[in-house]
Specification:
Blueprint: E1 13-14, E2 25-28, E3 33-35, E4 43-49, H1 56-71, E5 78-84, H2 92-102, E6 107-110, H3 113-122, E7 127-130, E8 139-142, E9 146-149, E10 155-159, H4 165-176
Length: 179
């Protein structure tokens, strides 16, 4: 009868059953190719951003660092992936400095412009370059939330920008427990 009860309530937006956001394969800042499939068995938090972002990205990455601390030993079963929406400036070397500065297990992913556009379309991510005073000083408007995959590799949740690490940890613990 337990299956007849209400579905679990998450703090993040429940995406169970969506038919998009299934796959990505990009290069990592570690020089290797990575896909979502390799992280099965772990909960994955996927965030799209860029290293020169003045506000949203460093705040979100800081929150994800706090999430890992909040999870304690459960953090060993979580993988954070940072996908750049600025392939022109975010080199593997820059990603290798920026992403692990927030947490040593975080992995930065990148592709060329075509690969970035393909992944963005797969995950329904908006991003658009906004000109700056000089050609190299542009900003990138982009979707600011994070996607979460359960240990089976299914897209399950979306955390809006500003979600607290404590509330994210509650959701991740539920996914790690098999909910």
């Amino acid at each position: 009868l337990g299956a007849c009860g209400p579905a679990p309530k998450f703090n993040g937006t429940d995406l169970k059953g969506v038919d998009w956001g299934k796959e990505l394969t990009l290069a990592g800042h570690d020089g290797k190719s990575h896909s979502l499939a390799e992280f099965k068995g772990r909960t994955v938090v996927l965030f799209f951003g860029y290293t020169q972002c003045p506000d949203v990205c460093p705040v979100t990455m800081g929150s994800l660092r706090e999430l890992m601390a909040t999870l304690g030993t459960d953090a060993q079963r979580v993988q954070v992936l940072f996908v750049t929406v600025d392939p022109e400036r975010d080199t593997p070397q820059l990603l290798a400095q920026y992403v692990p500065a927030f947490h040593p297990t975080f992995l930065g992913l990148y592709g060329d412009s075509a690969a970035t556009a393909k992944v963005a379309a797969e995950f329904k991510i908006f991003y658009r370059k906004q000109p700056g005073k000089d050609p190299g000083t542009y900003t990138v408007d982009h979707t600011a939330g994070a996607y979460v995959f359960d240990p089976s590799g299914r897209l399950r949740l979306y955390f809006r920008h500003g979600e607290t690490p404590a509330r994210m940890a509650q959701d991740l613990r539920r996914l790690l427990a098999g909910e």
